[in-house]
Amino acid sequence: xxxxxxxxxxxxxxxxxxxxxxxxxxxxxxxxxxxxxxxxxxxxxxxxxxxxxxxxxxxxxxxxxxxxxxxxxxxxxxxxxxxxxxxxxxxxxxxxxxxxxxxxxxxxxxxxxxxxxxxxxxxxxxxxxxxxxxxxxxxxxxxxxxxxxxxxxxxxxxxxxxxxxxxxxxxxxxxxxxxxxxxxxxxxxxxxxxxxxxxxxxxxxxxxxxxxxxxxxxxxxxxxxxxxxxxxxxxxxxxxxxxxxxxxxxxxxxxxxxxxxxxxxxxxxxxxxxxxxxxxxxxxxxxxxxxxxxxxxxxxxxxxxxxxxxxxxxxxxxxxxxxxxxx
Length: 327
Description:
The radius of gyration is 24 Å and the shape is globular. Residues 1-27 and 44-70 have low confidence and may be disordered. By secondary structure, it is of the alpha+beta class. The protein has five helices and 16 strands. The two termini are 23 Å apart. Strands 5, 6, 7, 8, 15 and 16 form a six-stranded antiparallel sheet that branches. A five-stranded antiparallel sheet has the order 1-14-11-10-9, with helices on one face.
């Protein structure tokens, strides 16, 4: 069982030759540069679902672009999974980069190339496999999380600002823990929509609320009359979880997850503005959204549970528990 946080990687389009120049020639084993063609993985099931909508637009710090091309194999998804799970792990002078959507440029040692070749070879038989992701969201006071939940999942030493991802094996203790969460009077539980994804693709689970607000007024002259027309817009908040998975050796699935919780401050703040000199002031609304994120990678067997603890917002802690099953 391996659980660790994903380190963000800049998306750079680099040629293989410049990468090769970064190799430390004093290392015992020299890194080799190779190009991998992923064209064989590009076929999409005609019955597959279309890409989902953007989660939220025009919110600083949130980029829905990574969610484009859902349920489709792409070099970006494959390179991200390889960087996380490759054995042995990459050194600082080793790289796995996407070149466009169909090619990978890899600078790595021989054993790592062999690992990639085994992975891609076995994945060619996974096109028809579907993985069912089930998620349940628990929201609780931070005090309850610190005193009762964190010790139960071995996270009592994690600072309040950090999130965490852990794996729980099936058994009586796990069942007791899940039952205690469901019965707790101060914990609010809800099921998130289910999701089915294919290996080496990206899928999205989201539950979004929409709130209308008065964004601005537009002035319109009608003869000698000046009319201020209100402009109503919609702000979105809620939860989204992006998933990508790959088959690892030993019948284990490698799962890379990116979770975002968007909290809209309510009631929505408003302010007074003057549209034009000589006119009475009007009030418009200014939505304030806070974003909490967690990126985690873990190895998950079909009967195990992943527990994702999101950094708290004020006095509220959110925990997501998910399970992965092959359909």
